[in-house]
Amino acid sequence: MAEFSVIVPAYHERANIRPLTTRLFAAVDEPKDTELIFVDDNSRDGSVEEVEQLKAEGYNVDIIVRTKERGLSSAVIRGFTDAHGKYLVCMDADLQHPPERVPAFFHALKSNAFVLGTRYSPEVSMDKDWPLIRRVISAGARMLARPLTTVSDPMSGFFGIQKDYVVKAKNVNAQGFKIALDLLVKAEIPSSMIAEVPFSFGVRTVGESKLTGKVMVYYLDQLKELYVYKFGAVTCVLVLLVLAALAVIALWYLASLVL
Ligand SMILES: Nc1nc2c(ncn2[C@@H]2O[C@H](COP(=O)(O)OP(=O)(O)O[C@H]3O[C@H](CO)[C@@H](O)[C@H](O)[C@@H]3O)[C@@H](O)[C@H]2O)c(=O)[nH]1
Ligand SMILES: [Mg+2]
């Protein structure tokens, strides 16, 4: 039974499956003790056949095909549930998360409950081709998550967690796009048990991003739920009322200067 599991949510990613698998197994320290699980939402694009071929070549890779559910977070939860490993790493299929960094996650997971891949470290650079609009959205989204966690990249989808802590996390939001943030808040992991691994965020070369306007709405909804979870509904309403009052006072003051 594998001790290390790599979970990859995948939707229409056939062309990325082979390079990810070969690069991952070439990189890990203990390939015989490592399993790779794709969680595909019935893409029907040849992903299953590609995985079968890789299996026949001897790679410890599998694919779960979901036909009734869809969504990034719920796919990751399904993969974590089915995984055999004690140490779990989640990464994207599109090679924006370099497989060569996975051993650093497993290494850090031996002494930490949670390991977050970060794009915001002096050691790494963000790919200069990452579109400006994505950088702006990412910065805004990060700022909004600031009160929830101290980690440097709460939007990251490249992370590792010990299986025991997945079991501990209750009511994880399967709708959201930001599963790492949800687990960080709901598994109640102390900051002393969280490590960060810097990585350079690449550019997708094959296939398309699934980030749509709807995903951003889901994110705001997820944030609302996490704020209430962490601070309680009463505190959230009071803070909103104070902010609204401050905004009215500021507008009043500005109007008095102009008029
Ligand atoms: N099974 C399944 N997989 C999905 C779904 N939606 C997306 N995925 C998979 O989830 C991964 C990330 O999707 P992308 O569409 O490539 O996301 P992105 O916009 O590049 O977003 C990335 O950057 C964010 C930070 O800015 C990360 O938070 C996010 O996890 C992801 O890494 C890919 O492997 C994609 O196939 C879905 O509905 N179902
Ligand atoms: Mg991507």
Plain-language structure description:
The protein has 259 residues and is α/β, with parallel strands linked by helices. The protein has one domain (4-232): Spore Coat Polysaccharide Biosynthesis Protein SpsA, Chain A (Alpha-Beta Complex). 45% of the residues lie in helices and 14% in strands. The chain has 9 helices and 7 strands, in the order βαβαβαβαβαβααβαα. It has helices spanning 14-27, 47-56, 72-82, 102-109, 132-145, 163-168, 179-186, 213-231, 233-258, and strands at 4-10, 34-40, 61-65, 87-90, 114-118, 159-162, 194-198. Strands 3-2-1-4-6-5-7 form a 7-stranded mixed β-sheet, with helices on both faces. Strand 1 (4-10), helix 1 and strand 2 (34-40) form a beta-alpha-beta unit. Helix 1 packs parallel to helix 2 and helix 8 (213-231) crosses helix 9 (233-258). The N and C termini lie far apart (74 Å). Magnesium ion (MG) binds next to loops.
